[in-house]
Amino acid sequence: MSEEQNLNRRIGAALREARLSRGVTQDDLAQLLEVDRTMISRYERGSRTLSAPALLSVFDYLEYSLGTLDLGTHTNGTDSPAPAALPESIQRIVAMLQQRPELIGTVEDVLETFLSADEAL
């Protein structure tokens, strides 16, 4: 299994855990992200990659702090090591968003613009 697939599975497990702990259905998340419910299932299984803006939206909706997202504990039975520590700049952004959640939409817009420009290259 590639590192990316392993990371997707750990993010999916964290997503499922957060969703279930809040009593939110896959249909609820599908409406939020404007996708089919089966896509939420794919995200949770790790077979599809959830974009950064979508991830921020989902965890904001679930009132789940990105700071508590411990990807190293959601291995789905794999023995792969936890991903390397996040760069300091990303840690600062996460901390800022935890303190000022009203900025999440702005950060999502910036990320979406950046990702769109990257795909165009």
Describe this structure in words.
By secondary structure, the protein is an all-alpha fold. It has one domain: 434 Repressor (Amino-terminal Domain), CATH 1.10.260.40. Helices cover 62% and strands 0% of the residues. The chain contains six helices and no strands. Helix 2 crosses helix 3 and helix 4 runs antiparallel to helix 6. The longest helix has 19 residues. About 10% of the residues have low confidence.
Secondary structure: elements and pairs:
Layout: H1 3-21, H2 26-33, H3 37-45, H4 52-61, H5 88-99, H6 104-120
Gap from first CA to last CA: 28 Å
Number of strands: 0
Outline the low-pLDDT stretches: 73-84
Radius of gyration using CA atoms only: 14 Å
Strand percentage lies at under 5%
SS field, number of helical segments = 6
Helix content: 55-70%
- Number of domain modules: 1
Q: Could you give a short account of the major beta sheet? A: none
Strand and helix order: HHHHHH
Structural class: mainly alpha
Here the CATH topology equals 434 Repressor (Amino-terminal Domain)
Give the overall pLDDT as a whole number. 75
Just give the CATH class.
Mainly Alpha
Shape verdict = globular
CATH-derived architecture: Orthogonal Bundle
For this structure, what is the CATH homologous superfamily? lambda repressor-like DNA-binding domains
Question: Notable features of this structure?
Answer:
121 residues, mainly alpha, 434 Repressor (Amino-terminal Domain), globular
Short description:
The chain is mainly alpha-helical. It is 62% helix and 0% strand.
